[in-house]
Design brief:
about 260 residues, alpha/beta, seven-stranded parallel beta sheet, about 45% helix, about 15% strand
Length: about 260
């Protein structure tokens, strides 16, 4: 399927590896000119080169911390008018909420709620003027089914989801859509980190903890980043102009509810 976004400009945050990288790869394969961001310059440029080789598209890397105003200013100085924005940032640490300080909450809210809102604010009006825009927020399956040890993530990402629910109804008439993708367990460094930390909290081996979590996935396996990237690219396509304010759960059918 032709996604109809050839030569559009895409800005993909936190995209040197994992799900962000997968989104950038599939958007490039769809013909967009991609800007990727992350804090570590050498890793980021290596990813940019890989995407260039596999897609044949223009890929530019911007080393900066998206969660800081200085980082956002640098990134938007290089890519001020993206047609596609994929918001992404590493999740906050797990733990018992009783142990979190106000600083912990502020960091989580800044990275996983306020930073995406700031990027949307900086780019959405340009999309409206051009009569095309696709904004995708990578959040978490915890938005749909909160995870007890991820209190910081549950709160911050749900706050972003609530904000988008209102804004997305205003922008769709201009062919600017805003949607979320809610990943379950995927084969990424983040999954390894979550398994390691969860095992520590429960006092069992990482292998046993991982086996336990994977056994709860009806698909019988974690997701593959490429699967996530392809969903993101489709949501960013011209074929989704009637879809906005939605949250796409991609978790191997782990969520047990009907709605």
């Amino acid at each position: 399927m032709d996604l109809g976004i050839k030569n559009k400009v895409a800005l993909v945050c936190a995209s040197s590896k994992g799900l962000g990288k997968a989104c950038a790869m599939e958007l490039a394969r769809a013909g967009t000119n991609v800007y990727i961001t992350a804090r570590t310059e050498d890793v980021l440029e290596k990813t940019a080169e890989e995407i260039r080789e596999k897609s044949g598209q223009v890929v530019r890397s911007i080393a900066a911390d998206i969660t800081t105003s200085e980082g956002r200013e640098k990134i938007l100085g290089v890519c001020p008018q993206p047609d596609i924005l994929v918001n992404n940032a590493g999740g906050p640490p797990p733990g018992d909420f009783r142990g979190f300080s106000i600083e912990d909450w502020n960091r989580a809210l800044n990275a996983n709620m306020l930073t995406p809102i700031e990027l949307i604010k900086a780019t959405v009006d340009g999309m409206i003027e051009r009569k095309f825009g696709r904004i995708v927020n990578i959040t978490s399956a915890a938005v749909k089914a909160p995870i007890d040890i991820l209190a910081l993530s549950n709160g911050a990402r749900s706050g972003l989801t609530g904000f988008v629910a209102g804004l997305s109804r205003e922008t769709i008439k201009h062919n600017v859509t805003i949607n979320g993708i809610l990943p379950g367990l995927f084969e990424t460094d983040t999954m390894k980190w979550r398994m390691r930390e969860g095992a520590k909290m429960e006092g069992i081996s990482e292998v046993d903890y991982t086996r336990q979590k994977v056994s709860n996935i009806p698909a019988g396996r974690p997701g593959v980043p490429e699967e996530f990237g392809k969903l993101c690219a489709f949501i960013c396509s011209v074929h989704t102009s009637f879809i906005s304010g939605q949250n796409f759960l991609i978790d191997g059918a782990a969520y047990p509810g009907t709605f």
